[in-house]
Amino acid sequence: MNAIRQLMGENSWTLRGVRILDPARGMDAMGDLYCVNGLLSDKPDASAPVADVRGSDSPLIAMPAAIDLHVHFRQPGNEAAETVATGLAAAAAGGFGTVVAMPNTSPALDSPAALFRQNAFAADASEKRVRYLLSACCTQARSGRSVAPLEALAEAGCVAFTDDGAMVADDAVMAEVMRRAAELHLPVMDHAVVPSLAGKGVIRAGKGVQPAHAAIFPDVAEVAAVARDLRLAKETGAHIHIQHLSCAESVWHLAIAQAEGVRATAEATPHHLLLCREDIPFDDGNWKMNPPLGTAEDRAVLRQAVLDGTIGCLATDHAPHTAESKARGFSGSPFGVIGLETALAASWKALVVEAGMKPLDWAARWTTGPASVLGLPLPSFAVGAPARVSVLSQEEWTPDFSAFCSRSRNCPFTMSLPLRVLALL
Fold this sequence. Notes:
Structural class: alpha/beta
Strand content: 15-25%
Distance between the termini: 13 Å
Number of strands: 15
Helix content: 25-40%
Shape: globular
Number of helices: 15
């Protein structure tokens, strides 16, 4: 809608007649938003541009800009798939005002110098609306063997520790990571998949097509990792955040640990919430991710866990890959799907439309939920707060991957989606 887009890039603006979703204040109501000099105000700037969208049968939605605490931007090491600049552009197009980049670049982010280099990439990018935060490695070179200089990394500004893309499989090493992270008051995020149990598995057992040479990924590879992480968190007092949960039994372990007082959080991705193993078309590498899609039963349990707050936040695990690498079939292509430009729409379809989630709770999983994991101030529309706003339309659309800001196109969401991002203000 042109009236909304004309506000983009403006430091002061007025937005009238929108449905305001503000989870931090428990607000779901029709109203107006005023931005004056980059901050939300209770009075409009009379000279600022105005977008008046009152009178629609399906009002536009305004929510605090979403936070994605799990993205891969591939620079340095694989700029053909994504750069920091193109990743930030994709984030803005998807309605995200904050992203947390994973450290599995090449070389990995295991030193303060590497973090400074990454921040320089963001400083050079043209997209300035998206706050770029960094996680840092748990272990040196993500080897899983020796703990990275966590204290120096924290001082350099990282917001979490993770060897994402690989699990720290050695219990003693992970326990040391957790103890030191607890002292630094930073979360440890784990890609909870035991390598020895996963083996060469790429697809879950279940109904549906079986791509050629696609080995089975056993549920126990994730479940055992989740149980181990929760046990170590209980022993060390660390904050463990389990990445991209996909199994029903993993949710059971998480719920028990939370009831016992373990500081444990978790995320679910739009692809694990909307899709399932039975949906996979024959031999399409764009449907291959790690962990693989669960069964319809797994999906139902994941949705319920998001609804009841056991899983308190959503994340994309935006994982770009070149078209050439994803053309090698399901077995031969790398793990990962992109998600930044479809995440809000796909998760709205899975949770609000299909599972009956309240829109305000859905918005919380993209805003206050991830902010709480990271220890950030809860985003809200309170007077004086920074004006980071995602404006959404409840309209049907089918993603046009050729128009994406991301450099990659490895996305499984080829269906019609019921929510569209109009602007990031």
